[in-house]
Amino acid sequence: MAKPRPCGYSRVLIALAVLGWLNPALLGAPRYDPIIQRVLTLLPRPPSQVVIVDVGLAADDVREALRMVDAFIVKGRRVVYLTSHNEILQGTVSGWPMYEHMLAAIIWHEMAHIDGADEEGAQRKEEGLWRRFVADGRVDRVTALRYLKLMADRHSDQ
Description:
- The chain has one domain.
- By secondary structure, it is mainly alpha-helical.
- Helix 2 (33-40) crosses helix 5 (97-114).
- The radius of gyration is 15 Å and the shape is globular.
- It has helices at residues 9-19, 33-40, 60-67, 87-92, 97-114, 119-135, 141-157, and strands at residues 49-53, 71-73, 79-83.
């Protein structure tokens, strides 16, 4: 199971700086459209937009910055960017519903940043959504509680 990573807000700022010169051809991955649509139905409210950034097509310096994050936002925009190498995004292709719920939690985390939350606040929002998935029986309880433990362990890393 993929371990949740803190989005590394300071690292994200590096990615945000380079986003201005990302080639528009790097954005979007139509093969993920049906998955993203399913994932968005899991959220209490949808984001304005989700965009997949194809890290493999980025320039070397941009690629290195983007490889450090799974998802990010650009301050002042209401878009959640997911990087194409994101292990959880890749896992959704397998069809295991747990990955779709994990991706929903990641998007929810980034939406919290869009709404002004710092890293700890965004992690708390992500964990809250995950707890709701567990309480509603939407995910396997044992696996979901292990993932929640990994989420909680991030706080001791900060």
